[in-house]
Write a structure and sequence with these properties.
7 helices; 263 residues; alpha+beta
């Protein structure tokens, strides 16, 4: 990816991450994803030793504890950006003292793919997590004010909030997966109006999947099943919210992000 494209993508990612307007932020994230994919496709037929075309992985920690709804989001983003995602748990030293250690267990999300695709994927995940948390907070405030009967069982609102997050993430995952499938079947339009054929998109996806498989040949993944939502009301409200979070034209069942294990 040349410097000009990198700069454009970075500006779009900054706009997506720092814009309080959800529609504008989502549109910027989508455009960054489209630019990244377009550029990767246009270089797919060129044999290059450029490190920017090599598969890599980047791990980031987004919360004290990652849950199945984070995995659902990451799976949809991976499908959209031709990456692979998985949870990775590590013990990390958080002590500031050079004379003692304090290890804590932290679970991060790993994206595997071309550097540009991984960078976009992490930025999209960060934005969508913030968007869901904001929607969950607003919805919970509304439900407590207008729909609370006063007789909710202990822990009801915690179950509602967690199920809301999961529902929103599942709906967003479905939408992103649908867009990825549409691109594979019908191709896509580049930012300059050039039509990229379905065969080109599908070929690029297959090549990228093969490269990622080779990169991860010595990594064993353990598939975890997500339990169903503990609050059907919260899950339903979350799915509705997932439709309202604008993806512009981006693009689902339990979380499909596996966890990593070592021999």
């Amino acid at each position: 990816m040349n410097t000009t494209i990198k700069d454009r993508v970075r500006k779009l990612l900054n706009l997506a991450g720092n814009n309080p307007n959800e529609a504008e932020a989502a549109a910027a994230a989508e455009k960054a994803s489209r630019l990244m994919l377009e550029h990767g496709l246009l270089e797919a037929d060129i044999v290059s030793d450029d490190d920017s075309q090599k598969v890599t992985e980047i791990r980031k920690v987004y919360a004290a504890k990652l849950n199945h709804w984070h995995g659902a989001l990451a799976y949809g983003i991976s499908k959209l950006n031709m990456c692979k995602s998985y949870f990775q748990t590590q013990y990390e030293n958080i002590s500031d003292s050079p004379y003692r250690t304090k290890f804590t267990r932290q679970t991060g999300m790993v994206f595997v793919g071309k550097p540009s695709q991984v960078e976009v994927s992490h930025s999209m995940l960060e934005y969508l997590i913030e968007a869901i948390e904001r929607q969950a907070k607003n919805d919970l405030r509304y439900q407590k004010k207008w729909n609370a009967s006063g007789f909710e069982e202990r822990g009801y609102w915690m179950k509602y909030r967690n199920s809301f997050r999961y529902g929103a993430a599942v709906r967003l995952r479905d939408r992103m997966e649908e867009i990825a499938t549409t691109r594979d079947l019908h191709g896509m339009e580049s930012s300059t109006g050039q039509h990229i054929t379905a065969l080109t998109v599908l070929t690029a996806r297959q090549q990228q999947e093969a490269a990622i498989q080779d990169f991860m040949a010595n990594i064993k993944l353990k598939q975890n099943r997500a339990s169903g939502p503990s609050s059907l009301d919260g899950f339903s409200a979350g799915k509705q919210a997932g439709d309202k979070i604008s993806l512009h034209s981006q693009v689902g069942s339990t979380s499909n992000a596996p966890r990593i294990t070592y021999n």
